[in-house]
Amino acid sequence: MKTVKIKDEFIKLGQAMKLGGMVGSGVEAKIVIQGGEVTLNGKTELQRGKKLHNGDVVSYNGETIQISQ
Question: Is this prediction's pTM over 0.85?
């Protein structure tokens, strides 16, 4: 599991996926999120702009990242 460090209180899901290397672009993030392929803390997440906080776990395509401050 990779860790994505954030400086602010939150990061948006699409941005976290890009930083974690799960997707190559915001457009790709939008497609896979809206396609129901991404889970947040074990539940399918469909909002690209969903705010992630310290400790949240994102999974997609066999890869997992955790948000850390």
Answer: yes
